[in-house]
Amino acid sequence: MMQDQSRRAFLKRSALLGLAGTATPFVSSLAAIGEAAAATASDYKALVCVFLYGGNDYANTLVPYDEGSFAAYRTARANIGYQRDVLAGTVLNPTVALPDGRAYALSPSMPEMSQLFAAGKMAVALNVGTLVEPTTKSQYQRRTVQLPPKLFSHNDQQSFFQASSPEGAGSGWGGRIGDVFQNGNGNAALTCINTSGNAVYLTGRNAIQYSVGTGGPIALLNSSRTLYGSSTALDTLRALMTTETGLAMANEHARISKRSLDIQAQLSSALAGAPATNFPLFPSNNTLADQLKMVARMIAVNQTLGLKRQVFFVSMGGFDLHDNLVAQHPGLLAKISSAMKAFYDTTAAMGVANQVTSFTASDFGRTLQSNDDGSDHGWGGMHFIVGGAVRGQRFYGKAPIVGTNTNDDVGQGRLIPTMSVDQYAATLASWFGIDSGGLRTVLPNIGNYDSSTWNQGFMG
């Protein structure tokens, strides 16, 4: 079951943002939409966050393959680690070799991602995680640096990855990117699009996420043509919902309702020109693929809707594998691999691969050391960036020492991140068109890092 943002965080954000902030098709207030745009764009670009709820197990996703590292990997997880011979088909051969002969292979369940890497369309970001400032093991142990609050907690680390703040955050960095560009779009309400419910990642200070289902916009009034069999009754209800009465709250509700009905109709009409049958590359029985197909359909109609910049959020759950990792994890990874490859291939067929970048994210990594037949909550993890503009077939960041209680972990193979989420996000945001001044607004902790490290180099 998906590890969603907690009910407490949801209620806090709902209280802050009002009706428009919940996971509904309602959109932001007139005041928010009317604010001056901070940036404009002449081309189209899309960022797609693929969030893996529960904390993905990094060591069985990107497996140490050089002999020394693999031996340490097997020692730490003799009962849940892969055998080396099954990894031969997914060994990653980078254009720039890692130091000290280090090597990695993807899980055997991810052949499609291996193909993307070999084609130069995927990069690997090593040891990414939540930080407030650069942190070493000594600093962590002596508590001489500021640390993300409530490390190893699902709710808080999901929020910190998405928002640079713990549970209850009011905005996320995807939404704050949306703030910068929303008024350059033909319809500001379609800047931040969520296909999987509610996530703080897409909530801006002004921008509000617009939720869609895998079949299209979430329908107000269930797209009914009648009410209790009467078209007159339905017309009356619509009029009651959208007519201003002179009372401030009622007027705002009416404006939001009218705008939401109008946007629903506009988006439904546009998507009719990009039916799901036109997107045959996506696998069936794969909820992530279904969400990414919806994203592809929306990208296909960006010109119809007058859109220049969009930020999307899709997600999968089931990664909190304290047990049954061997039985369940490969199937989850297979769905990621096939869905993300289908999405890339679809953007290539549409001629927009260079304009669309997808990337993975998760609460945290997990322990290298096994916990019977699973792994426990960790910290840093490995992530993938896919797209035509990606400087692919390369590893970025520092490959951690494989083992437990090394200088790179705080026990049991819980990696101390060496690439912060802020640096990971700044690299993506810079490609998207955010300047250095804007990065400080989008990512409030980025100023804690030397500016030469803000861009990690994996985007062209």
Explain this structure:
By secondary structure, the protein is α/β, with parallel strands linked by helices. It has one domain (7-215, 263-453): Alkaline Phosphatase, subunit A, CATH 3.40.720. 34% of the residues lie in helices and 15% in strands. It has 14 helices and 14 strands. It has helices at 7-17, 30-33, 67-76, 111-118, 137-142, 154-163, 173-181, 231-242, 248-271, 287-300, 302-305, 325-350, 421-432, 436-442; strands spanning 45-52, 62-64, 104-106, 122-129, 192-194, 210-213, 216-217, 309-316, 356-362, 366-371, 374-377, 381-387, 395-396, 419-420. Strands 1, 4, 5, 6, 7, 8, 9, 12, 13 and 14 form a 10-stranded mixed β-sheet that branches. A hairpin with a 2-residue loop joins β6 and β7 (216-217). The radius of gyration is 22 Å and the shape is globular.
Tags for this model:
460 residues, Alkaline Phosphatase, subunit A, ten-stranded mixed β-sheet, two-stranded antiparallel ribbon, disordered N terminus
